[in-house]
Amino acid sequence: MTGNSFFDEQKEQSLIKARIVEKYFWVWAKVIIPTAKKSSVSEPKIAYIDLFAGAGRYKDGSKSTPVKVLETAISDPDMRNMLVSIFNDVDADNVDSLQQAIDLIPGIESLRYRPQILNHEVGDNIVKTFKERRLVPTLFFVDPFGYKGLSLQLINSVVKDWGCDCIFFFNYNRINMGLSNVAVQDHMNALFGQSRADQVREQLKPLAPQERELTVVEAICEALKEMGGEYVLPFRFKHEIENRTSHHLIFVSKHVKGYEIMKDIMAKESTDQAQGVPSFEYNPATAQQPLLFELTRPLDELESMLLDRFAGRAMTMKEIYDQHHVGKPYIGKNYKVALSKLEAQGKIVAEPPASKRRKMKGETTFADSVKVKFPSMQ
C-alpha cells in the first residue's frame, strides 16, 4: 500500500499482534523440530511464510514481525540450521525496506537458509503452488491490509500438511462492510465460500452490531473447520479510541497441541481476566472499567458446566481438560481452580483428597493426575 501511514509508528495493537506471532513461532518450532529431525529427510527443515510482510521497520524504528521472527530464529542453533523463511509484499517500497532491515539484523549471516524476499500479488497462482506441493512444517502468517488475497483456499493450501499452522489477520470492519458490497462480492465469496457468504448476508440483515460480529466470526471459523482446520481460535482487538472491534487475529491448526499452545499465549496477552478466565481480547478501554468487567462470573459457569457434562463419571483432571476446553475460553489453571472449589464445597470427590496433596503459596494444588468423581444427576 504505497502512501499509507500504517508503518509510520507501531501502535499497541500491532505490538501485541507481533508478540503473539513471535511467541507462537518459538514454541511451535521447539515442538516441531525434534519430530522433523527424526524424519527420513536428510536435511530436515521448518518454514515461516509471510505473504503480506510489509516494511521491515516502522518509521519510529520499531521492528516489524518478520524482523522479530528472524531474530528469534537466530537465537537458537536448531532454528538457525533448519528455518526456511519466505517474505512477500506487493509493494516494491515495502520489499526494499524489508530487505534493508533484514540485512542489518545482527547474526543474519548465521542462518543456513537466507531469507527469500518476493514481490508478488497474492492470488490463485500462489494457492495453486502450495496446493501442489507437500510443504515442510510451516507457520503461515497472513496479514493483508483489508481482505484482498485472503481466502479459504489459501489458508487450506498450507495447513493441509503435517506441522503446518496458520495465523491470519481478519479485518472485521472491512469484511462486515464488504459482505453487502457488490463490488467486492468475489473477494467475500473467496473468503467464506460462496454458499456460506450468501447465507451470512441473509443472516446479517436484521442483526444489531454485536450480533453481526459474532455471526461473521462464527461463520469464518466454521468455514475453516469444514476445510480441515479443526482447531480455530480468534483473538479480538478493540479500537484504541472507540469501544468497538477493529479486527481479529485468527489461529488455525489441525492439531490440538498447537491450539493449546496458542490458547495459553493469547490468554496471557488478554487485557481482561474475570475470575482468572481470559477474555481473548485486547481492549485499551477495559483497564478503565475493571469493575464492569468483574460483574461477569465465568468461573462459576465452568463449575456448573463440569457438573452437568461429567455427571456420574470418574476421570483425571487432564482427561476433563482435554475433553472440555476446545471451543471454550478456559485454560488449564481455570479447570484446576474450578475443581478445587467444587471439592471444597463437597460437590465432587478427589483422589487423593486435598488433605494429602501438597500446597503452593498456601493453596492446595490440583495436579493433572488427580482423579475426580462427579455425582450422578439427581
Layout of helices and strands:
Layout: H1 12-37, E1 46-50, H2 65-74, H3 77-82, E2 83-88, H4 92-103, E3 116-118, H5 124-132, E4 138-142, H6 152-159, E5 165-170, H7 172-178, H8 185-192, H9 194-204, H10 209-226, E6 231-238, E7 245-253, H11 256-269, E8 273-274, E9 277-278, E10 281-282, H12 290-293, H13 298-309, E11 314-316, H14 317-324, H15 332-344, E12 349-351, E13 359-360, E14 363-364, E15 371-373
Parallel strand pairs: 1-2, 1-4, 2-3, 4-5, 6-10
Antiparallel strand pairs: 5-7, 6-7, 8-9, 11-15, 12-15, 13-14
Please characterize this protein's 3D structure:
The chain is of the alpha/beta class and 378 residues long. It folds into two domains: 12-284, Vaccinia Virus protein VP39 (Rossmann fold); 298-373, Arc Repressor Mutant, subunit A. It is 44% helix and 16% strand. It contains 15 helices and 15 strands. The chain has helices at residues 12-37, 65-74, 77-82, 92-103, 124-132, 152-159, 172-178, 185-192, 194-204, 209-226, 256-269, 290-293, 298-309, 317-324, 332-344; strands at residues 46-50, 83-88, 116-118, 138-142, 165-170, 231-238, 245-253, 273-274, 277-278, 281-282, 314-316, 349-351, 359-360, 363-364, 371-373. The strands form four sheets. It has an eight-stranded mixed β-sheet with strand order 3-2-1-4-5-7-6-10, with helices on both faces. A three-stranded antiparallel β-sheet has the order 11-15-12. Helix 1 runs parallel beside helix 2, helix 8 packs across helix 9 and helix 13 crosses helix 15 (332-344). The longest helix is centred in the N-terminal third of the chain and has 26 residues, at 12-37. The radius of gyration is 22 Å and the shape is globular. Residues 1-10 and 287-295 have low confidence and may be disordered.
